[in-house]
UniProtKB/TrEMBL annotation:
Species in which this protein is naturally found: Aquamicrobium lusatiense
Protein name: DUF3309 domain-containing protein
Top-level taxonomic group: Bacteria
InterPro entries for this protein: DUF3309
Alphabetized Pfam families for the sequence: DUF3309 (PF11752)
Transmembrane segments: 28-49
UniProt entry keywords in alphabetical sequence: Membrane, Transmembrane, Transmembrane helix
Length: 52
C-alpha cells in the first residue's frame, strides 16, 4: 500500500474521531480538531517539498 493512501486513511479516521457527536467526546473542546489541523499542515508542507 503506498504511503499516500495510508496517510489519507489515517487522516480520515482522525477526522471521524474528532467529530464531537459521541457523548464521551463532547467536552474535549477544540483539541482533536486542532491536532488534525496540525497534521494536515505538516502533510501539506511535506507534499509541497516533494517528500511524500
Amino acid at each position: 500500500m503506498p504511503l499516500t493512501t495510508l496517510l489519507i486513511i489515517v487522516l480520515v479516521l482522525i477526522l471521524i474521531g474528532a467529530i464531537p457527536s459521541w457523548p464521551h467526546s463532547r467536552n474535549w473542546g477544540y483539541g482533536p480538531s486542532g491536532i488534525v489541523g496540525v497534521v494536515l499542515v505538516i502533510l501539506l508542507i511535506l507534499v509541497l517539498l516533494g517528500r511524500v
